[in-house]
Amino acid sequence: MQLQDLDLSETYSYADYYSWTFDERVELINGKIFNMGSSPGTLHQLLSGFISCSLANYIEGRSIEVFTAPFDVRLPKLSIDDSDVFTVLQPDICVVCDANKIDERGCIGAPDIVVEILIKGNNSKDLKNKFEAYEAAGVKEYWIIFPYSKSFLKCVLLKGQYKLSRLQTFGDEVTTTILPGFTMGLDELFEIEIPG
User: Fold this and answer.
1) What are the structural domain ranges in the chain?
2) Tens digit of pLDDT for each residue in 9-61?
3) Which one of 42, 53, 74, 157 is most buried, counting C-beta atoms within 10 A?
4) Domain 3-190 class in CATH
């Protein structure tokens, strides 16, 4: 089966998603298919590596896990049954503090922190569709990295809605109440460039 064989106007579940064998990487948001497009570029991967290493260094010895894409995050609304899950995302990075949410196929339920690095072509999906999906699912913090403007936005869930931080950039440090004592300097992050 190919992605082009599917009716993109239909609603699909994780049971459908898990059965697909085509090469394209896709996500489901409220049962609708979103093609993830081409593989992330070099700058995206360098930034993702830096952030995931910063998080991994912090969690060493703690009962917290950090995962990088491709890693399925299933966001159920009523039931965790595969045929009842209609949102399946692959965030660039996610932090899961509850080991009970992790199984052999990924994460079932909201991670504590999700990180998305915006690349050309996926901005509207990450800024609107994923924002709404993460907010509705109860993801406590959604970090959005804008590599080309060298800025960082943290969305913190308060009473079921995201409150946005000020846009951060050089000279700022990322902190989070979810990981007490964690800091990540944005100077180091945004000084990363493609070698050569």
Assistant:
1) 3-190
2) 999 999 999 999 888 899 999 999 998 877 888 999 999 999 999 999 999 99
3) 74
4) alpha beta
